[in-house]
Amino acid sequence: MPGRILDSKAFGALAAGYMALQPAIMNIELPESAAGTAINLEATLPTASGTMSTAENTKYAVKTLIIGGIAGCTAKTVVAPLDRVKILFQTHNAKFVKYAGTHFGLFRAGAAIYSEYGVRGLFQGHSMQLARIFPYAAVKFMSYEQLKMILGRHIGDTHLRNFLAGSMCGVISVAVSYPLDMIRVRMAYITPTGGAPAERVRSVTKMIYREPAYRFGLFNFFRGFPLTLMGIVPYGGVSFLMHEYFTALARTRFAHVAAMPVDGQQLTKGRRRKQRELRGWAELVAGGISGVFAQTASYPFELVRRRMQIAGAHDPTKKASALKAIREVWSTGGPRGFFVGLTIGYVKVVPMFAVSFYIYEKLKMLFDLE
């Protein structure tokens, strides 16, 4: 079963270090206004009205589901080539490992992929990525909004509420989309030789299903799943926490440069959305910075998970082992080995988070959603 894939002792020490990040984040103090008075983030970051009827909330959930999926797909398309290179580095692909850790290795690896496989090589596995990211991002954003409303009725601390809502929505969205991510990673990892055509979704799916490591083939699609859940807690929680924090900061302390001037249209009678809109650059910066924090907090979990996901490509008969993956990473790179590709991760995650949150917030504005 998927639950048996993971030996918790194998990464206990690793997890402890990163989970220790959570209390520190929870203690971030609220920004103060120029007058020295603490700003009420709850007032500057309104959620959907708590007086919504069931029908209104259903419409709100459907709209956030759709625009969340659109935002996620747009962001992933922007960074797809970087994502391909990062996966090849994380999994120590034999043809591209020589570029990892070198100056301009990201661009050299990208150029090598382009010269051998063309533009399609840079986007290999992207169709599967879009099939995965739409439900992932849609469920993530929709469930975050719903959880934020629910938790807001019971938790007075805004930071704690945002962190818990982000962590929980991350767990839900990963559970929905993990098998698709497994297929996408395997497609990105495979590098055809001798002019052979790239593997298609159907053939890769069959390949994974038929691997004899598990009695039931479906379990092959959940290699590294428990470790993913471990990593998504800081990833989802920190990303939404920091995004909410920095957008609140932009609307308050730095409103004179980061927020749009209040005009008559924004406060039109009957319009639900009352908060000040941020300028485009401010939205992008807030999203990008939140991505840096989230990536740093969860990267070792992601790296080990990638190793487990491609384990079947090396030996289809063996089950994925977190302990073995961690030992391999440690033996080849020591502590720094758990951060191989992190620079690429930053290069990828900053525009990805920036575009994702930017598109999501602009579509919320278009649909008049808080």
Descriptive notes:
With 370 residues, this protein is an all-alpha fold. The protein is globular and about 60 Å long. Residues 1-49 have low confidence and may be disordered. The protein has helices spanning 12-19, 21-26, 41-44, 54-78, 80-90, 105-117, 119-122, 126-152, 158-189, 201-209, 225-251, 255-258, 280-309, 311-314, 322-333, 342-366. Helix 4 (54-78) runs antiparallel to helix 16 (342-366), helix 8 packs antiparallel against helix 9 and helix 11 packs antiparallel against helix 13 (280-309).
Please write out the topology.
Layout: H1 12-19, H2 21-26, H3 41-44, H4 54-78, H5 80-90, H6 105-117, H7 119-122, H8 126-152, H9 158-189, H10 201-209, H11 225-251, H12 255-258, H13 280-309, H14 311-314, H15 322-333, H16 342-366
Helix pairs in contact: 1-13, 4-8, 4-16, 5-16, 8-9, 9-10, 9-11, 11-13, 13-15, 13-16
Protein name: Coenzyme A transporter
Solcar repeats: 59-150, 157-249, 278-366
GO biological process, one term: transmembrane transport
